[in-house]
Amino acid sequence: MSEEAPQYDQADFVVVANRLPVDRTTDADGTTSWRTSPGGLVTAMEPVMQERHGAWVGWVGAPDETLDPFDYDSYHLVPVPLSAAEIEDYYEGFSNGTLWPLYHDVVAKPEYHREWWDAYHAVNERFAEAAAQVAAPGATVWVQDYQLQLVPQMLRRRRPDLRIGFFLHIPFPPVELFQQLPWRRQIIEGLLGADIIGFQTPGGAQNFTRICRHRMKMETHREVVTLPSGRSTRAKAYPISIDAKGFEALARSRPVQDRARELRHELGDPEVLFLGVDRLDYTKGIYHRLRAYGELLAEGVIDPRKAAFLQVATPSRERVEEYKRLRDEVNMLVGRINGDLGDLRRPAITYLHTSVPRTEMAAMYTTADVCVVTPLRDGMNLVCKEYVACRSGTDGALVLSEFAGAAGELRQAYMINPYDINSMKHGMTLAMNDTVQNKRRRMRALRRQVFTHDIEAWAASFLDDLAAVPAPQTTSTDPQA
Ligand code: ADQ
């Protein structure tokens, strides 16, 4: 048990994530308040948090800020402070400069720095301590994502009475790549502190159990890993999803329908509208996609007077070097394609480097004929599921990379290999020119999958499995327990 007495109410259900589920807003009169930040995880957790009066442990999003825990809606928020140096080393450094590229097939080069690791370790300890403080005896704690992989073990050491789940939102790499990591053993041991480790795909779960078996010499049987102490952990796939009904309702609403028409008009009422929506990240294949589209225009396969491409890219991790470079590269490519192939009435590609509200996203999904999702590697990818949810007319076409986790579920998409520019060009052309019947048949199948496997089903399947784990068996403080 953690030694210090808790200074606030404890909770039976605790989520631990890098960020709190709220953003601070400042009104015109200077008063600040909190607003729920948009996002799948927050949507999924909301009903559970409300019902169980849960607590959410996370960073507030600004440096050097120490805030007391506070109530928000009917749950409790526990801010974890991070210094400016920690944001640099733990967040931008180890999380986004080491783990992110390593876990995404090394599509950018991961950097290994001991001071980044030290900060990651120290910050994970802080999150674990905050979770240990707020969790009631026998509580369920659900730790989220790659920034906090050491927390399960650190928490179990402090609180062997808890049920601990972990979910990784990004891919888990094959052993051949993972073994580059100088701290690979610590990461695996950190994760094994959980009772259930959730992955986006069966492939990710298998990569993990393979490492446990071959590198850690642990016994594994299918999804079960047995630790030297005799305790066991399950590594299993839980493909994340979206609030499909919510998106569909939004897309059908009058304001969004009106905005969809208006948007299309603003884009010059093209015969075919292509859409790309991503965080500006090198894993998303934005550059490759626009290059392929540029070639189709240059070859005359697509007529720039009849087609439009809307690419929206949310600014992301702008202080990390690799992201600055990507931003410049995409800017240059769009400039070149528009300079060479656009005309006075319409740019070949309309590129917005901005975040847009959910209603605007729904309007874009509603009006786009072809949604192009081409990551080089992606844990799941929610954009493709959001697009499908918004197509209640069962029209529209989805071009999807084989390297997105979602490809395992959305098999009726126009599948492409983003490393093969011809494959991408072929996929976009087919999606544009396919018969209406074919498109409808594909879209119906995609919608069935997304609506029967929504975010509620995702959270329920993970939490049901966690609830079925036998009550914690040990009071040991052995790190391998
Ligand atoms: P991300 O890498 O952020 O998530 P993704 O799954 O596509 O990728 O989610 C992006 C979310 O941001 C979507 O909900 C989308 O609507 C929104 N978004 C994108 N561009 C936007 C814009 N310009 N304006 C506003 N909103 C925008 C990580 C993993 C994924 C995994 C998710 C969830 O990398 O693989 O699917 O977590 O687990």
Furnish the topology, listing elements before pairings.
Elements: E1 11-19, E2 22-26, E3 32-36, H1 40-52, E4 55-59, E5 70-72, E6 75-80, H2 84-103, H3 114-134, E7 135-144, H4 151-158, E8 163-167, H5 175-178, H6 184-191, E9 196-199, H7 202-214, E10 219-221, E11 224-226, E12 232-237, H8 244-252, H9 254-266, E13 272-279, H10 286-298, E14 307-314, H11 321-341, E15 349-352, H12 358-367, E16 370-373, H13 383-390, E17 397-401, E18 414-416, H14 421-433, H15 436-452, H16 455-467
Parallel strand pairs: 1-4, 1-7, 4-6, 7-8, 8-9, 9-12, 13-14, 13-16, 14-15, 16-17, 17-18
Antiparallel strand pairs: 2-3, 5-6, 10-11, 11-12
Would you kindly provide a written description of the structure presented here, covering whatever features stand out?
The chain has 481 residues and is of the alpha/beta class. It is built from 16 helices and 18 strands. The chain has helices spanning 40-52, 84-103, 114-134, 151-158, 175-178, 184-191, 202-214, 244-252, 254-266, 286-298, 321-341, 358-367, 383-390, 421-433, 436-452, 455-467; strands spanning 11-19, 22-26, 32-36, 55-59, 70-72, 75-80, 135-144, 163-167, 196-199, 219-221, 224-226, 232-237, 272-279, 307-314, 349-352, 370-373, 397-401, 414-416. The strands form 3 sheets. Strands 5-6-4-1-7-8-9-12-11-10 form a 10-stranded mixed beta sheet, with helices on both faces. The protein has a 6-stranded parallel beta sheet with strand order 15-14-13-16-17-18, with helices on both faces. A hairpin with a 2-residue loop joins β5 and β6. The two termini are 15 Å apart. The relative contact order is 0.11. Residues 40, 169-170, 240, 277-279, 312, 314, 355-356, 361, 378-383, 386 line the site of adenosine-5'-diphosphate-glucose. Adenosine-5'-diphosphate-glucose binds at residues 40, 169-170, 240, 277-279, 312, 314, 355-356, 361, 378-383, 386.
